[in-house]
Specification:
Layout: H1 2-17, H2 26-39, E1 46-48, E2 55-57, H3 58-72, E3 74-76, H4 77-84, H5 88-101, E4 105-108, E5 111-114, H6 115-132, E6 134-136, H7 137-144, H8 148-155, E7 166-168, E8 171-173, H9 175-190, E9 196-197, H10 198-213, H11 222-234, E10 240-243, E11 247-250, H12 251-268, E12 270-272, H13 273-278, H14 284-291, E13 296-297, E14 301-303, H15 305-320, E15 324-326, H16 327-330, H17 337-346, H18 348-355, E16 359-362, E17 366-369, H19 370-395, H20 459-467, H21 472-480, H22 486-496, H23 511-566, H24 574-607, H25 625-634, H26 637-650, H27 655-669, H28 678-698, H29 702-718, H30 729-734, H31 742-767, H32 774-796
Antiparallel strand pairs: 1-2, 3-5, 4-5, 6-8, 7-8, 9-11, 10-11, 12-14, 13-14, 15-17, 16-17
Helix pairs in contact: 3-5, 4-5, 7-8, 9-10, 9-11, 15-18, 19-22, 19-23, 22-23, 23-24, 24-25, 24-26, 24-27, 25-26, 26-27, 28-29, 29-32, 31-32
């Protein structure tokens, strides 16, 4: 059998060596192959080589690729295309199939690498490690021209077998090197006795290792030291605790910490969080609560229950004795006011006292019994009421009244000793002659008939509605005027409890300040209730006051209008007109203006809860300019503006301006002023005429008689009620020259001349400018008295004027 096979092999070899006598061209071969593919004889794909003269099957291409990989271990796909002579596209496609079918191969960045190649690389790395103790993975990747991740992924499964090393932080270390660094880490960690950050420990170790390796050594990463430290800690080669991976606390330090805390807490029954921080314990509350479950955490300290019992006994004693206590004076100095407040709220006696309203905590640390506070408050409340009344009165100054005598004209003194009549109305005073100054009161005759028509009974309500329109801010400002300030309250507290003075009024945390802040709202409420009560009581008085004021103005303002009409007679003589205007403003106008301002001021005081004594109805109010201004400024809102305008008009020279401002103020106050019509004017003139006749018939003063006679003649001649000052009597008589017969006019002029001479003698005698004898004065007065019947006859008509 063997012989036959050998024979067949020789024949086959001979047939191959025999040259064919028929040769085919390349074109014929290509056409033949195509024909065989069309006939299906060749049923597999054929690939052309890059020369185009050869065909190769895909199986053969894969076989040649695998052969090259097994021979080189690492080959580039581009190099395979050049070596095999096939187009790169077909080589890449078949190379992908080869790598996919063989798990020991990998295609990386256009290169096919086998596991045997990596085994050889691992052996080379191991040999290098024995020489230099450490190699960086990045360095190997640069040498192999691949990525560091790939090198690390290839070396990790070979560590401990082909590569006897440790991979840490991108570095390969030999076991001997790791053991040496481990010894360094162990020694450095065991030399630490206080809490430390391990990151600070690794820096000197890095420098030490680098010096040990020399200039060629690779820097060691902190993670390498940390991993060694973690392994040593896990193996219990070091005792301590590690927080957040880097904060290391040795067990010896923790033991010392606990001993210090236990010693301090057992001796003092408390420990501050600041002390805990100095001992290196950051989470002090959690540490203390876990160690002392019976303790209580406060704001700045941690206390034992015995501290609460001690403070409870002290506060209970203070409450029972109706006294007070500062808990900070009982507690250690390291306690804050917040700590004192918290521990007070834990005291059973304080809890029960607060619930029963027997005590009060002020300023976090002060405990005061309710009886102690009440005693001080009762004393201060009485003084606060007095302060409120005084403050209200100061803000609304009540002007003093003037007696009518202070502004009456001074009649000439005679041997009979004529005197001023006290308590009489100014309207019944006599007039003076031209030597009397303008600012003195002149005659103000009034009708005795009261005009009661058109009175508005609701004037008080109107005034209230007008004044109520002011802004809330003004009300609040007025209300604050009667509230005692903090300094006043604290001073009164010190008067009741002198020991509080040691705390000082400027200290914001003193018991004096806190007690004043507590009592201030109580005093405000008390004063408001008192004012509300007084206001209720004053309501009826306010209504009666405004009704009485309306009655007063009904007659006086009609008289003022009556006197104003007489001023029209002197409009052509400007200088004389000014004298009459000013006289009327300073007499009748001043009286009704003073009455209005005074009663509005009383109404304002009653409305603001200020107690005002009842004034006598018959008292006449006479004010000077400063007093009028003060009253006007004290009125609220728009009333004050209109009142100031009235005062300014009263100081002027025009009655029309006064009448306008007076009407404005009365209207703002809710008062109704009657307008003088023809009927009222006739009635008033008739009453005024009868009044003058009565006064002329009874007048005993020869000087005063002249002014009344002149006023009567103006009613008779011009049907006007004239109010003439002494200095304008001559002008008033001259104005009657064309209206009287010659004898009557002559009588007036002679009497007026004699009066002026008499007053001049009186003035010279009182001023001691001339040595005038009493006989001359007496003679002149007797002369005037002898002419008085003749002058009365002009009014009474008893006899014709005769030449004296």
């Amino acid at each position: 059998m063997d012989a036959e096979l050998l024979e067949l092999q020789r024949q086959f070899e001979f047939a191959q060596q025999v040259k064919s006598s028929v040769r085919l061209s390349d074109r014929n071969v290509v056409e033949l192959v195509q024909k065989l593919q069309e006939l299906g004889v060749i049923d597999f794909d054929l690939l052309h080589t890059v020369t185009g003269k050869e065909y190769i099957t895909q199986e053969q291409l894969r076989s040649e690729i695998a052969s090259e990989i097994s021979k080189l271990g690492r080959v580039s796909v581009i190099d395979l295309a050049d070596t095999i002579g096939v187009d790169l596209y077909h080589v890449e496609k078949q190379a992908q199939d080869v790598v996919t079918s063989d798990p020991g191969l990998m295609l990386v960045q256009g290169e096919i690498i086998s596991q045997s190649y990596w085994d050889s690389i691992a052996e080379e790395v191991n040999e290098r490690l024995q020489e230099c103790s450490q190699i960086a993975v990045a360095e190997l990747a640069g040498q192999l021209q691949v990525g560091s991740e790939l090198v690390q992924s290839v070396l990790e499964p070979r560590l401990g077998t082909l590569v006897r090393a440790r991979l840490e932080g991108g570095q390969l270390y030999t076991p001997a090197y790791v053991a040496r660094v481990t010894a360094m880490v162990r020694g450095a960690a065991r030399g630490i006795f206080v809490p430390s950050n391990l990151s600070a420990l690794w820096m000197p170790l890095q420098q030490l290792v680098q010096e040990m390796n020399g200039a060629s050594g690779v820097a060691v990463e902190n993670s390498f030291f940390q991993s060694i430290f973690n392994r040593l800690l896990k193996e219990d080669e070091m005792l301590g605790s590690l927080r957040a991976g880097t904060h290391w606390t040795p067990s010896v330090f923790a033991t010392a910490q606990k001993e210090c805390v236990d010693s301090f807490f057992s001796q003092n029954s408390y420990i501050t969080y600041e002390t805990m921080q100095k001992l290196g314990i950051s989470q002090a509350v959690q540490f203390l609560q876990s160690r002392y479950p019976d303790g209580k955490p406060l704001s700045a300290v941690f206390i034992h229950s015995s501290m609460i019992e001690m403070l409870d006994a002290a506060t209970e004693d203070a409450i029972e004795q109706n006294s007070w206590i500062d808990s900070l004076s009982v507690l250690p100095a390291s306690f804050t006011s917040q700590d004192a407040n918290k521990i007070l709220l834990l005291c059973p006696s304080v809890q029960s006292a607060l619930k029963a309203e027997k005590a009060l905590i002020l300023g976090d640390s002060y405990v005061l019994s309710s009886g102690f506070i009440k005693g001080i408050y009762d004393h201060i409340e009485k003084e606060a009421e007095a302060f409120s009344i005084q403050a209200s009165t100061a803000s609304l100054i009540e002007p003093p009244k003037k007696s009518p005598e202070s502004t009456e004209s001074i009649p000439a003194n005679t041997d009979k000793g004529s005197k001023k009549k006290k308590g009489k109305s100014v309207s019944k005073n006599t007039a003076t002659v031209e030597t009397v100054p303008d600012d003195e009161e002149d005659a103000r005759p009034k009708s005795k008939r009261n005009q009661k028509k058109g009175r508005d009974s609701s004037s008080t309500q109107k005034l209230d509605s007008k004044a109520g329109g002011k802004k809330e801010s003004v009300k609040a400002q007025e209300g604050n005027n009667i509230i005692p300030p903090d300094g006043w309250v604290m001073k009164k507290i010190v008067d009741s409890v002198p020991e509080f003075e040691d705390d000082g009024m400027e200290n914001p945390d003193s018991i004096l300040k806190h007690l004043a802040d507590h009592m201030k709202p109580m005093l405000i409420n008390s004063l408001k209730e008192r004012r509300k009560k007084i206001f209720t009581e004053n309501s009826d008085r306010m209504r009666r006051l405004m009704d009485d004021l309306q009655k007063k103005l009904d007659e006086s303002f009609l008289n003022m209008q009556l006197y104003e009409k007489a001023l029209e007679l002197f409009e052509e003589d400007q200088s004389t007109s000014v004298v009459f205007h000013r006289h009327l403003l300073r007499t009748t106008a001043a009286t009704i203006a003073d009455t209005l301002l005074h009663d509005l001021d009383i109404h304002n005081k009653l409305k603001n809860g200020i107690e005002v004594e009842d004034a006598k109805a018959q008292d006449l109010v006479l004010l000077d300019s400063s007093e009028r201004t003060a009253l006007a400024k004290n009125l609220p809102g728009s009333l004050s503006k209109k009142a100031l305008a009235l005062v300014a008009a009263l100081e002027g020279k025009c009655v029309d301006a006064f009448m306008t401002t007076f009407r404005d103020l009365a209207e703002e106050s809710g008062l109704v002023l009657k307008k003088l019509d023809k009927k009222l004017e006739r009635t008033l003139l008739h009453g005024y005429r009868k009044d003058l006749i009565s006064q002329v018939s009874t007048e005993s003063d020869p000087v005063a008689l002249l002014a009344k006679v002149v006023s009567f003649l103006y009613i008779k001649v011009h049907n006007k009620a004239l109010q003439a000052p002494g200095r304008a009597i001559a002008a008033a008589i001259s104005h009657l020259k064309d209206k009287l017969d010659e004898s009557a006019y002559k009588t007036l002029m002679e009497y007026q001349t004699a009066t002026v001479t008499f007053l001049a003698l009186m003035s010279a005698s009182s001023g001691e400018e001339h040595d005038c004898s009493a006989d001359r004065i007496l003679t002149k007065r007797e002369l005037l008295e002898s002419q008085m019947p003749i002058l009365r006859a002009l009014v009474l008509g008893d006899s014709q004027p005769q030449q004296s």
